[in-house]
Design a protein that fits this description.
This protein has helices spanning about 20-35, 210, 215-220, 235-245, 250, 285-290, 385-415, 425-435, 455-460; strands at about 5-10, 15-20, 45, 50, 70-75, 80, 95-100, 105, 120, 130, 145, 155, 170, 195, 220-225, 230, 260, 270, 295-300, 305, 320-325, 330, 340, 345-350, 360-365, 370-380, 460-470, 490-500. The protein is an alpha/beta fold and about 525 residues long. Keywords: Cell adhesion, Cell membrane, Disulfide bond, Glycoprotein, Immunoglobulin domain, Leucine-rich repeat, Membrane, Nucleus, Repeat, Signal, Transmembrane, Transmembrane helix.
Amino acid sequence: MSLTWWTIPAQLGVFKVNCRGLVCLLVFTVSVCGSAPGMCPAACICASDIISCTNKNLSRVPGNLYKCMKRLDLSYNRIGFLEPEWVPALFEKLNTLIINHNSISSIVTGSFSTTPNLKYLDLSSNSLKTLSSPVFQELRALEILLLYNNQITQIEPPAFGGLYKLQKLYLSYNLLSHFPLDLYTGKHKLTDLVLLDISFNHMQLMPVQRLSSVPAKHLSGIYLHGNPFYCDCMLYSMLIFWYQRHFSSVVDFKNEYTCLLQSDPKGYNKLPLLHDNFLNCSESTVNSSFQAFGFIHDAQVGDRLIVHCDSRISDAGTHFVWVSPDNRLLEPDRETDNFKVFRNGSLEITDAQLEDSGLYSCIAINKKRLLNETIEVRINVSNFTVNKSHAHEAFNTAFTTLAACVASIVLVLLYLYLTPCPCQCKAKGRKRKLNQSSAHSCILNSTLPQELPADEKKASTGKRVVFLEPVHEPKHSQNGKVKLFPNDNIIAESILKTTRTKSDSDSVNSMFSDTPFMPSS
């Protein structure tokens, strides 16, 4: 029988024991858990450092659990809310806590002060409604947080404050109507977050412009499928860009992305969002979205341009190379013409020229993780001078057309309002006023002009047409005046014809006055 010496660490130092077989295993177990008291409750199942107390009608954590446990499962119980004393003892080695399918409706700040080293927390399928205060601030080592299948309607910016190492956040099947952009921007942003599942919520709009500034390593892990989005070309362009980048959040759930027309808010007809440009979005709208996400870059001749390689592989040890449109290999620390590649993957064009336009490819390679990714970027270089001359010509043409239109309008107005009135119009106007003031009297002079020669006077005849206006007087008194016709509504018309005689003295003179008209015999 041989004995073996084992050196075992303990809280009070290092000691040696002479053990064999089962005795050695017992001493090792005691050394791991220390001298802390604890036992396996009758309602739970204990397997080394794993304790399962599922579906036991518990409302709080049992107080006599092993302090050396690393995984505690309390799912399918009656836990209603979390407060600072809901875990009765300090469990420093606990890294996995599962509390799903309970009735948790609220979480008080300090509820996780006795479990500070959690890395995995499952609060799914409960009754949480709002997340306002930083209730998880003690969990500085937390990496995965499950909150799906709750009733969360609102998330305040500081709700996840302190979760500096959080990598995966599951918020699907809730009642969120706004995208939690504060997770990626602002002072409470989660810099290590690589997966956000916010699918099957109540979001109808997305902050596409603001999301364009988020790095690709974060964008690639955003899951949005199953939301009742309004049909929008900006959203379509963003998702198409993600699809071309082979983001699994879009590629794996392409058929789950649907949209609703704003005229049909109740969603009777769901339309496919990522199938054959169903929305008929214009090319300019799609290109503007691509440009916002860094897929298209515009520059002028002579500009200095820096293009970033927005790769999802951004770990230390990642190597970046670029391939130009003419298939030249551009590597870090090797300047080629006016190109320079930095170690972080950025490409610099010191003096952009027209021939530099085209499709560039950035290749990110990580040999340790056996990963690689290719990002395509389009660069458009244009000549500002040519564009400026075309714009100047277009402006001149438009200005000339506008000036001609204004001149035409001015001439028309001058013709309509400033044309002098003919003399006849003025004479008639004066006569009309005179007739109205002289008691409707009219004088007819049939004498021919005396300036004409005697031969022409003998050979001509004089004709005059007189329009006599009726005199409107009261019926009971005529004041010595005789009415021409018995009917006042009739206008008298008379044509007088006179035959010329040998001398001017034989001409006929007619005067209409207060006496009746008497023709000569």
